[in-house]
Every structure is written in C-alpha cells, then in structure tokens.
Amino acid sequence: MAATTEAPVALKKNYLTALKEALDEEMQRNNLMLCQGEDIGRLGGAFGVTDGLQAKYGEDRVVDMPISEAAIIGSAVGMALNGMTVMAEMQFIDFISCGFDQIVNMMATYHYRTAGEVNIPVVVRGPAGAYGGGALYHSQMNEAWFCNSPGLKVVCPSTPYDAKGMLKAALRDGNPVIFYEIKELYRKREIEEELPTEDYIVPLGKAAIRREGSDVTLVSYGQNVYHCLDAATELEKQGISAEVIDLRSLVPLDEETIFNSIAKTSRVIVVNEAPMTCGFAGEVVARITTKAFHLLDAPPSRVTRMDTPVPWVKPLELHVLPSVDKIVNEAVRLVKF
Amino acid sequence: MSAKSGSATAERAEQGQGSRRPSESLTREECLELFKQLYLARYFDIRLIKEKKRGRLRGTLYSSHNQEAILVGSLFGLQSADWISPIHRDMPAFFLKDIKAGWDNDTRIGMTIEEVCCQVWGKEGSPGRARDNWSHIGSKSKKIIHSTSMLAGTIPAAAGVAYADRMQGGNCVVLTYNGEGSTAQGIFHEAINYAAVHKLPVITIIENNQWAYGTPTELESPLEDFADRAKGYGIPGLIADGQDVFDVYDKVMEAVNHAREGKGPAIVECKTFRAYGHGDHDDDRADKYRPAEEVEKGRQRDPIAVCRKKLIELGHLTGEAATSFMAEGKGAGEATNDDFPPEVVAYLNKGIEAAIASPLPAAEEGAMWVFKENN
Ligand SMILES: Cc1ncc(C[n+]2csc(CCOP(=O)(O)OP(=O)(O)O)c2C)c(N)n1
Ligand SMILES: [Mg+2]
What we know:
The structure holds two protein chains of two kinds. Chain A is of the alpha/beta class.
C-alpha cells in the first residue's frame, strides 16, 4: 500500500490466525508447554496452525511426531503426569480414532482413578467438519464418542474470538480437552474479526446467543451455527423470529442458556453435523425433555446428518448433511405445530 | 521354558561379557538383600492366596510366582528418582521400588506395604482410594506410572514421562514391565518407535512367561526371542535368564546405563515361566490347557533356588543358613510361614493389619474426581 497518511486500519483476523496466536501466547507464558503432532514443526502443520512456532520455540517444544496418533496422545499423558502442558494435534480429527484407547481409557480417567492426584493439562485438537468435499475420512464430527467418556471436556468454537479464547482456556484448564476446529472456517473471510490485544480467555462451559428471537430456538455449534443464522434470516422473511444459540462447549454443557431461551420461544431445534443416532443433538433434546418439558409448545426436534458416512461429491454430501433449507422447514413445521 | 530357548538364553548370556558384570560388584550384604527380596515377593503372593482362601479378600490375584527374580533384579539397580510402570503381574514392584532405602522407610520413593495391601483389600488407605482394582494404582510422588488394564497402554506414558524429565533437566530412566503377549499390541510399537526416535531412556522389560492367558507364545508371535523386536527400532535387545536375579540385574543395568548415557531405549526380554494360572481364577483351568510336563519343567528352576545356589557358591550362604527357609518349589497349598524369614512374614502382617483396619472409601467418592474443579 502506498498511502502512508491513512489512519491504521484495525486488523481483522481469521479463525486460523486466532488459533495460532493462542498457541504462541500460551507457549510464551508457559515454559513447560509443548506442542506435538504430525508435520507441525518444519512444515508448520497441514493447515498451518502451528506455522512459525518451531522456529520460535525450538524442536524440543514443537515436535514433529511419527504417524502414531496413539503415541502422540499417550506420550502427552505421560508428559502431563510429569509436570507439562501439551497440545497434541491430530492432522485431521478423523484420525483421532487411532488414538481412541489412549484418550478414553488412559487420559480421560486419569484424574478419576488417582482420586484427584493427577491432572492432565492436555488439549487434543484438530480440523473437523464436513461441507468441504473432504469425503469419508476428512469430514467427520466425532464429538459424541468423547462426550460419552467422562473426564473429557469437549468444545467447538465457531468464531475467531472464541477459537483463541477457548484454546487458551483449554490449555490452562488442567483437564483433558478435545478441541474441535472447523477447517472450513479456518480462512473464511466473512467471519474474520478484530481480536483483543490483551490476554483474554473464553471460559469453557458457556454458550453464546448469536441472534435473539422469540418464536423458535435453534441450538447448534461449529459450522451449523452459520446455517442456523442463515435460516433465521430466511425465517424472518416468513415472519418467524428465531433465536440462535452457539453452544461452543458440549462438555460441560450450558443448560441454563438453552432453557432460558426455550422459556421465551417454547420451541427448539438442535442442529449438528454428526449422524443422528446417539449424536450430541440427541443428548441436548433429552435434557430439554427431562428438565424443560413444561416450557415446550411443540416436540423438541433435531436436524442432523443422516445416519450415513459423509460422501465425497457435492450433491451427495449436501444431501445427507443439515442445510439451511432443512432447518427452515423444520422451524416452520414446529411453529405450525 | 523349552530346552531350545533355555540354551539360547545361556548363549546370549555369555555375549558382551568380556568386561565385569555389574552383579560382580554387589557386596555380600546386597546379595543377601536380593535373596530376601525374592522371599518377600514370593510370600506376598502366597500369603494373598491364603488370605483369599480364608475369605478375607476379594478380587482376582495375578501371581508373579516363579517370576520374582525379574522384579527384584530389575528394580535393585535403579535410583530413587527413576520411574517404573508395572502391570498386573508385577504387584510386588509397587513396594519393592526403592526398598533399598529401607523396608520401613516411609519416605522412600516407592509405596509402603500398607498402601499396597490397602489397595489389594480395596480400602481407603490405597493410593488410588480403591477406585480401580489390583495393580491399577500408581503415584506421581513415588514415580510409579498408574497402571490400567490396557496391555502395553502405559508405554507411551512412560515415554512422555521420560521426555518431560529430560526437558526439566532430569536424568531418570523409566522401566516398563510387559508380558510377552502384550507386545502384539499396536501401541507397543508406536510407543517404542517414538521413544527410539527421541532416544528416550525407556526400558521395556518383556516378561516372557511363555503364556498369555490361554495362548502359548507360538500363537502370539513368530519370534523365538521377543528381544528381537528391538531390531525393528534400532535399539539393543537383551535377553536375561528370568530365573536368575543376578542375570536380570546385569542385563537391566546394561540397559539402564545405556539409557542414562543418553543412548536411548532398550528391550530386555526375561525368559521365565508362568507357574500357575493367569489369575487365581484360572489356576485349575491352566492345568488343563497346559501340558503337565511343560508346567513341571517350567517350575523347576525356582528363582529362590537359583539364587540360593549362587549365594552358596559365592560363600555368602554357609552352614545352617544355606538350608533354612526352603520355600522353593512350594505353592500356596504347601508353603507355611516357617518357610520364610520371620521379618518377611512380619512385614506382610503389618501391611495386612493396616488394610483390615482401613475403612472402605465413602460411597459418594464414586462420583468424585471426574474433573479437576477450577473454582
Ligand atoms: C488390550 C487388552 N486386551 C486384552 C486384555 C485381557 N488380558 C489381560 S492379561 C492378558 C494376557 C496377557 O499376557 P501377557 O502379556 O503375556 O502377560 P502375562 O499375563 O503372561 O504376564 C489378556 C489377554 C487386556 N487386559 N488388555
Ligand atoms: Mg505372558
């Protein structure tokens, strides 16, 4: 840019940069923190989330690991046992299944089985989510597996502000956290935002209301938050006012924000990208029916992926996933119920 | 143990011993201490089975009978600050760690007999407050990695502990114990490969007792020597005679010294034989799925007898002492307290009394400590 006289424009940052800043700042403030994962050092990560960190913190603290998800997670647990904080990257969250045993039997249970003697400050994070043509093994949202494993916190930010604040909170939490990043949001221009220059965290376990409304509550997280917001815009044209809640954190779950919203709207749809059966939306609906049934004027509903894997080519992929249309149609049905 | 692997052991045992063997530097007192620790491990086993028969104890017991030399010999040369990662067959390791610092020294970096007995009895005095059973305990301060059921599942943690220790300027080694059957697990490979890449001081002891529950070694792996797995990681693979506490000590010390010098991990296979069932629930069945001759042969070289013979040769055991406390070859049904040194019996009595006196944890604890609270 040639002009030097213009006032400096505040810099908007994308979701990926927000994550990178969180890692950088936490590595800076905690000498006993380490990052490990496949190709995260020299290359800077498959998506670049750790780009530049190895040059800054050295090969001992930003470690290129063998293609061994179980060892990446399992060794992080040992490091935590011996005083360190670890960020363990899964190149794609789909591959987390290769480290499943280490997560659910070793990491998740450590605090419990030692009667609180051992804390495990380990964050397992990685790119997740569909809608990008990633096909079966680069599109998953497998959060339900871990929500069903007591001892793990499970979170999924949808904005740059939350991505940074929640990653920092997760690294300081002292409990193991499974951190779902939405790869389709990494470089999405529309959601770029200014981030505070001072240190901040976004506490785990607090939902955010992304849009206020009075006729129906749309509860979601990750990419589906944006589908819900688009659906709300569409519904407004039809005279229906939708409130959109971004859960951000699944475990722990902010029930209060959900129930307060339903007290206003008396209708609710929970939307998630994962398959329907035993998906997290089912858990949210179950909590609503057991604890807030008296607030409802229509059966609580969900819009989820069909009970299928995520297929590759676009028409197939979109067919099985939640969409703006599917959410709108379901909302209309509930309002007319 | 087949005759074949027995001779292979002897052959390997000769290798690399131009220089003095570490055990040759052990004093008479140390040799006698090793001997006594074998009794301690054996008596722990036998006594628990007796306690269970008397109905004073619940839960499954995984006997280390006939494999005690592996635990005693491998732990004896460790420094207090070293870490260990025992599994189901290694229960005595929890109190044998750092026991050199004094059997009754409660500040040693190892568990007390009271803590271990409280765990076996499922009482509040257990280091894990009896939240999980049998060997599934550990201690950060005692530098014992908490074991789980998942075979080979703690080797990556051992590697992580070693990495973190190095980052913090330490010079510890980490000993992990594994049955030969567990070497077929994927995590065994991932963890040792990672440790080898980073030259981490992690020593993998393979207790090759010829059986993994009901499955013999030839159906577990095509290898004759499980130590050969080391070749795939470019690390030393040593073989020890698991019945000979001195040979175990020598081979483990070789690996420990190698690791402490920053040269990385090693595998030490200790050849032994599982004398009884997989667990005490399996004792009767094991007599059916294993040929009687094999079992008889496998029990022949009792580590207490092997050690006794050596101590007599060295002149450390003479006169009446050479033939007292003949516990060797006796199972829980045959052995009596008179077969063990009185201090060994007294030690266990002390632990068991503490366990019986310790209360059960409060029921509400079942729902506690799922998460670290951050308030
Ligand atoms: C991952 C896993 N699979 C199966 C088991 C059940 N199991 C417990 S011990 C055992 C046999 C282990 O054999 P080995 O590793 O040789 O040890 P040993 O019992 O002979 O000392 C099996 C199959 C387990 N604990 N963990
Ligand atoms: Mg075995």
